[in-house]
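Human: Can I borrow your eye for a moment on a structure tokenisation matter? Separate attempts, laid side by side, tell us more than any discussion would. Could you pick a protein and write out its sequence and tokenised fold? No explanation is needed for now; the record alone will do.

Assistant:
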Amino acid sequence: MKESIKQLELFFKSSNFDRGIRVGVALAIPFAVFYALGYFELALPVVLGAFLNAPGDMPGSRKRKVNSILISTGLTMLITAIILFTKPYLPLLLITMGVIAFFVSLLSVYGFRASLVSFSGLLAMVIAFAIDKTSTSAILIQVALMGVGGLWYLAVSLLFQVIFPNKDQNQLLSDTLQLTGEYLKLRAKLLTSTKNRDQRIQQNFSLQNQINDKHESLRETLLSARKHSGRSRYEEKQLLIFISTIKIFELIEAEQMNYETIAKIFKDKKEFLKPAKQLNKRMGNHLIRLSEVLMQRNALPDKKKLTLALTRANDSITAYLGRLKLPQAREGALILKNLYDFQEQTLEEITAIRRAMDNVKEASKVSLKRQDASQFLTLHEYRLNMILQNLRLDSTLFRHSLRLSIAMLFAYSLGLFFEIQNTYWILLTIIVIMRPSYGLTRERSKDRITGTLIGAVIAVGIVLLTQNEIVYAVLALVSLVFAFALIQQNYKWAAALITISIVFVYSFINPKALEVIQYRVIDTCIGAIIAVVANYSLLPSWEVFNLKQVLIKALKANKTYLLATQDLYRDPEDNILAYNLARKEAFLAISQLNAAFQRLTQDPKSKQKEFQLIYEMVTLHQTLIAAIASIGNFITQHQTTPASVEFNMLIQRISNTLQGALDGLEQTSTQDNIAQAKAEDAHEKLLNKYKRLAQARDENIKLGNEALDTETLHALQEAYLISNHLGWLVSLADNLKRSTKRYKETILQEE
């Protein structure tokens, strides 16, 4: 019960609920004002204009929000006017409808925000079929009032941003902390458990993708804040929390070790890994609690259990050495020590987040230069060339746009042929649930039908209990508010609430409410069936054939990240910014690969060709970036020795192997300059360096010098990590090149 109350409190304090209230206010005020003044007919187009342009109101910089709503307003006005003017001429209407559906849906090439503007445009086209205006003056007045509604919504949105300036940022930070905590807990399970490992690794992919999406939104929101006037102290606090969450995420990535080696060394000694596993779990739960505190503004949770768990993790290293003794215990002890170092750094970042949340003065200083910060923002191309580049059959968005146009024309023609009363409801269902991915379309269609049925049952029950118009109006508004609040979290219940809202809006106008409900359910089912069948049969875009470009991007990003790590080893001070930028791009590329793999798992089983091969490739990419991150993190956190010739030779060998895989996909040719024998010789020399350090340490122990100074420890750690991780990277790169070649031979040649 206590947990349910807490979740309810978090929901009402969330930016999602705030967005629902925003929409409710933007719709209710003009409706009430015009109704009270006796101009009810003017209220509907203004309310419609506000409703149509609400989707473009998403978290991000104020400039982009204003631009998206203004563009959306202009687009919805233009489309409404075109449809209303062409409606009397059926052949022209069908041509216009197909062209608008195609090109407006193609706007999604400009990114997520553009896809929301695109949705507003498609929604305006569909709703225009429900507007009964025929004269030129009536159409122009309708369109003008819709424009007023769009500007009114923009004003309401900006007013809410002034009243609650940090709501969206806090929500994004809270979501990021919560997801990072879940990710840390998942990694804890992977450390010792071999059961359901593949399933957990797939969960790992999904979490990574979600976290990277949140990071991108936060970069846009926080790094672009007040570029000219400077940041407020509160914004500095948010930025510090954000930077720490990024560091924690990267530490979790770098913490991924060779699980095969760990399983071999700790096969019958897993009790020494359990303290590290417990520490990860506790830190994960602590981050989740901090995510709640950020929204609830409650007292910070106690940190004592974390420090105690860290002590136990450190003690397990001593216990391990005590049982196995040196030199037999050295490799296992170094693994535990490296793991402990990652966890200690993670706890330091959690402490930094706590200090920022606790308003410690010293925590509000961020040294990130503005000119450096701007380089971490992802720039979006808005040139016409982007549309032209996608006007080809191998473009996923081109296929989706063409498929959507055909589905809508078919649905409208079907409605005309069978004289369906509200054909635009079928069209509405299609544009709401149809996505480029078949799997996502299928899932949304299920949720849409289920939600519509739930909403219809609830609406019928209320209609049978009362025929009070005031009750209908209140319920229509309340259900719409909650629908907008839930649409990102739970689409099924959002669909149910939208159904309730629409039924009561119609009931407010038309007393035959039960008839409205009946048609709503039938039309939703028809629209969902058309959308799913169209996605499956009309120029289907199966994810297995769409992976090529994503794989190319991941290979390029990983290669750049690897070479940036080499430069970092050579000169950490001068190359840290370039390294951080390369790391960010590599994580984003891997996130996109993970997202593509998630879409692949939603395709029909018969279309998931070479599933295990693709899973292997995604896993190899993921492990590769983790191994590089592990080396980079060690370099940034320790005073290292100069990069050796052998190190540079192996980096070049790995880079050339990745380039070879890339050449196979791009059908280019690059000469491999590092011979296999030379690379093996370089790796052997690095291993010998570690062995010499270990032997020297053993000699000191024999002489009675058991105390280990920090410099010797770091030298051993560096030699062990560099030699083992470079050998691991060589193996990973070779396997990735072979897998990429098989992908090309078994899938791309079949396409």
Observations:
- The two ends are 54 Å apart (CA to CA).
- The chain has a mean pLDDT of 86.
- Residues 16 and 146 are 25 Å apart (CA to CA).
- Residues 710-748 form the longest helix (39 residues).
